[in-house]
Amino acid sequence: MPRSVNAVASRARRKKLMKETKGQFGRRKNVWTVAKNAYEKGQQYAYRDRRNKKRTFRALWIMRINAAVREYGMSYSVFMGKLHEKNIELSRKVLADLAMNNPEAFKAIVNAVK
Questions:
Q1: Could you count the other beta carbons within 10 Å of the beta carbon of residue 107?
Q2: What CATH number has the domain bearing residue 61?
Q3: What residue spans of 3-91 are helical by DSSP H?
Q4: Which of 18, 19, 21, 37 is least enclosed, having the fewest CB within 10 Å?
């Protein structure tokens, strides 16, 4: 009995991966083994960086809030401590957005905390 290899499915699988690596530099786009390794490494980075993005944004929000509250003679940690004391539950994302785009509202929050 002849050996069955299902070339149709194998070809489709390779074609799908080659389509994903289209646009990459050098042999990463047209050599199967190199493209496969490049694609897998890219997927690892994508998985890792979906988590790192959350850390990066939180750090950015903290920097923006810190810069904004220092104008009112307070540090970030003191401000956040007083927010929790007064039971004002605003996320860092919202606070950073207010500090950048709506300084009057942010000032009202700072005054409510003082």
A1: 15
A2: 1.10.1900.20
A3: 7-20, 32-70, 76-85
A4: 19
